[in-house]
Amino acid sequence: MNPKIAAFLRAHEPATPCLVLDVDTVEHNYRRLLAAMPHARIYYAVKANPAAPILERLVGLGSSFDAASYEEVEACLAAGADPALISYGNTVKKERAIKAAFDHGVTMFAFDSEPELRKIARAAPGSRVYCRIFVGNDGAEWPLSKKFGCEVAMAKRLMVLAEELGLDAYGLSFHVGSQQTATSAYEAAIAKVAMLFTDLQAAGVKVRMVNLGGGYPVRYRQEVPGIDDFGAAIMGAMAEHFGNALPEMVIEPGRFIVGDAGVVESEVVLVSRKGEDDPVRWVYLDIGRFGGLAETEGEAIRYAFRTPHDGGAEGPVTIAGPTCDSVDTLYEKSNYRLPLALADGDRVQLLATGAYVTTYASQAFNGFKPLAEHYI
Amino acid sequence: MNPKIAAFLRAHEPATPCLVLDVDTVEHNYRRLLAAMPHARIYYAVKANPAAPILERLVGLGSSFDAASYEEVEACLAAGADPALISYGNTVKKERAIKAAFDHGVTMFAFDSEPELRKIARAAPGSRVYCRIFVGNDGAEWPLSKKFGCEVAMAKRLMVLAEELGLDAYGLSFHVGSQQTATSAYEAAIAKVAMLFTDLQAAGVKVRMVNLGGGYPVRYRQEVPGIDDFGAAIMGAMAEHFGNALPEMVIEPGRFIVGDAGVVESEVVLVSRKGEDDPVRWVYLDIGRFGGLAETEGEAIRYAFRTPHDGGAEGPVTIAGPTCDSVDTLYEKSNYRLPLALADGDRVQLLATGAYVTTYASQAFNGFKPLAEHYI
Q: Topology of B50-253 in CATH?
């Protein structure tokens, strides 16, 4: 575990559940990513963790920002971000939210449908827009289905329409899914985008940016390819398909920037068995799926645990949250094992929980308050 | 739609998303349930909706309360509830939460394991305890798996142990799953409980209460059996298995009391297609799975919709929430159809959304605030 976080937990024994996040690790990850993809401009995906100390550090580093809502635009501005460096990246926006962002100087917007494009043309005239297209999500542990993006033929028509509506038909985007562990997913997506890009240029559209989205993985229980592997695969594919005419490149990392910077500390509420000889113990924590660990749905993201008894004899466990809802079960099928000595009152740590935890937390399900947050 | 709620929405056009809940309907449902099961004592499941106006109305009606956490105990006390009428019904509790409840006069606690029983004995000496046992959840649209309850043999040993620990081995409980549409589920569970009950009495344990849990269904898109059918099935099974020696009966309704009392109003953010000839439109609302509609997970609870264009031509839709998370999709496989005239800016209503919505809402996922609440 991160020694700075470990020292904080020892010194303060903060009330649980809580997230402790090391902002220096955020900076370290930003610099690692910049080194791995020097041609790309980093738009931090604010939704991964919008805490002010993170945004402020990234502003200082010159980062740009990908906002999912007007509220996230406001958070970036409050942290000192230049509105020219904010992209409003949700393809689904209320028209008055677009206008509010535009009124604050935001001029870069995502879309994937004609009604959305027309909203942007009305509420944010002359802005740069980019169209999100479908690509495969194979290899992603948190895939993104068909909710976002459109088919290539539609994207082509809409980019032409964007210029007719007085917008700047700036670029194309895709997203290979979050916690994407296959570098080949980016290669396939780049090939698809490059064809459309060339088509659009041939049609006279002044497209000049490719937004590669996010998805770069964090190490949880299993090793994943390093960021340099992703950087090399992406730059190789870009060179192969665009040659010397490389477009502007945008990336939208969230999990990669903040995931391994944070640790959730939780208290064990109960360790029990369901029958006298049941080999599997149930371990109930004071944080669960509705307390912030939403990405354990379907056991998609499998966090690593630390306990005070690590190294001692272990046995199989089902791990659950503290609420009266059975859906609030974290891991039943992922072969977790925890020490036999684990008991109620023990404090355990969930590693690499800096991304997609705090904001997901229910405001009061079963009466439980959201986890506390400490940025150090 | 409830005319009082319809009038409120017309008169106030409240900011969306929001819940509007008619507290008179809560009272009506409480009285209906009391009439259907006059032998049972009603412990309202606070987790379904802990809003003060609901708790206060129920206090006035003489209801008891089933609390899932110490925070819910506090909410009941703040609403004027007598602590003697509060059951702390979560089988997973921190020992200091048990003590805090006991210090405020709560003396009725659920358990399903030996460590929990020992916690109660230490923190709430002499209290009434009841053991939750496993029963089948077939027929439930929101089943409860094995997270709660224990096997019958273990329950028997623990009830004997409860008396040895100086506790009052008060009763047995089960839960057939939420939105349970089969009256037979209760009949099978009662048969199982009755056998254990008789065993325990033969062993000298002074057990005298059966807690039938909740689960009574609300009408969403489909008709469900009426509460009188459940009352008749339950009383028939109780008479069959207990004869003239009926135990005290406790029920823990949540959804039944508040579900159809509430309506969520939402704004359509976008209606789009993914390809030029795609027959299915995507309808994006300003509330989704992380905005409170958590029970749409797996399309388990299928809410009914009202729109300003009802009666006009309809077509198939996928319905999704406003966040950048693809998991935030409500209905893709449940054959929803909505009017072809539906467009962004329209206000739509989700009926029977008074239960299990407000507290589930994420505090700030993608920057979106939890839905507003209006109790009328």
A: TIM Barrel (3.20.20)
